[in-house]
Amino acid sequence: MYDIGIIGGGTAGLTAAIYAQRAGKQTVILEAMSYGGQITATHKIENYPGIESISGGEFAEGLMSQAKKLGADMKSEKVMKVREERDHKVIETEGNLYECKAVILATGVTHRRLGVQRETQLIGAGVSYCATCDGAFFRGRNVAVIGGGNTALQDVSFLSNYCKKVYLVHRRKEFRGEQHLVELLKEKENVEFVLDATVKELIGEEYIEGVVLNRVGTDETMELQVDGVFVAIGHVPQNDVFEDIVKLDGSGFILAAEDCQTSCPGIFAAGDCRTKEVRQLTTAAADGAVAAIAGCNYLDRMDAR
Fold this sequence. Notes:
With about 300 residues, the protein is an alpha/beta fold. It is built from six helices and 17 strands.
């Protein structure tokens, strides 16, 4: 039996393993896709404290190496369910059962995609889902932000400090985000709203050179010459398999406070999969540490009974 089962091998999950192993607990990390999570697709990370510049792949490799050296078991398996037994939890994968005294859910999220051709191929070559991660690479250039919520509005505000021109493309006439943010953006000379428009096509072979927009409800199209496209149309959590054991909010995120404790004793949530305001590499790592420490404390209390 493992002390802690960690579901998800991204930054939060790997950090949790590192902290738990250093505390003398035996962990198993279960990851259905590739270890490292979405950060592996990032060409350069330049906003992680203490590391001036590193690729996402190198960053993830460092986490994995550290977790392995500390003794964490790593399994490439898809988790189907987590259930409670009398004094422990059971993680069910497609082919195995893992008994664990505690569980950390660190499944992350996927960025909601535009759904246009070649979007995936151009990630890191002009297509980005994180303005604060990649915005500085577009200093002095023209970019477009796609979306109408607070994240999109905040991304535009952030990028306007670096970029020559920022287009905010939204499919409606009105924004879902806070009105005071809209008013602040209207005052910026290098910000232009393009409303009632959706992305029809990405222009560029190796790198983004522009976007073709379609005016909603018409056959009219227009083209924007931009070097970057920042997609801010929401995140998609992957927590459906846990809804029978922990509480989720209306959007499918795991309800957990800053201590990472969920509604089920002994189950913790770390990283982007839980309810939170900020989803960054640093906050994922912080959650991993907090969840691991909370999990270790939980186990120590159980052992003291």
